[in-house]
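Async update (no meeting this week)

Hi team, since we skipped the sync, here's where things stand on the single-chain job. The sequence we agreed to prioritize is pasted below, unchanged from the tracker. I ran it this morning and attached the output directly underneath so nobody has to dig for it. Comments welcome in thread, and please keep replies under the output.
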Amino acid sequence: MRVVVFGADTLLGREVVTDLIFRGHLVTAVAAAHPWVPQEWVDRVVLRTGDPLDAGLVDDLAAGHEVFVDALGDCRGGRALARSAAATREITAGMQRHGRLRYIGLRPDVLLEPASRRLAWRSALRLLALGCCPRTRQAVASAFETVARSPLSWTVVRCPGLTHGPPRGVRHVGMTHRDSVGPSLTRADAARFLAAQVLETNYICAAPAISN
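Output:
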């Protein structure tokens, strides 16, 4: 499959690109600036630099790719998260303009929790760690609603705090906010799960929460 990865210069994005290569996909990696390129990318990845808020860039990429992977949610700080949510809107709008349907993204689970869970102490601590404010939560939740109500074949992976380290395996997958999932997930495991969704059909138009 021809796959474009936004946020290829994030820690998660680099893992996603590498895993997609391993799976045999044709990958275009989009970064804000020219990143350090791992050896395994050489001659196997098309590298593009640009801003995902640029509609022209999104239109150009939409014309030649079948699957869009959005790794921009791997960021900290309210401003960065709000900007990634705005980029999600631009990416999905461009996909619809060109009839591209498969969107795969990732967002911190705490930012998509329903009101009934917002006062939980763990949610409060995680929000503090992310540097989020009510406006950031609203922006991210609104972007998710835009994706969920679109005609796209979307999958938004909800994740706890991402950690460094080797893959440990995704041990918990929750499909509702009542399902119990763990407090952490390695980026390597998040990347493998995202890359697998390119051909996976179990989670189309769904938002699974995953953890180690």
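Quick observations from my side:
Residues 115-119 have pLDDT under 50 and may be disordered.
The radius of gyration is 16 Å.
Reply here if anything looks off.
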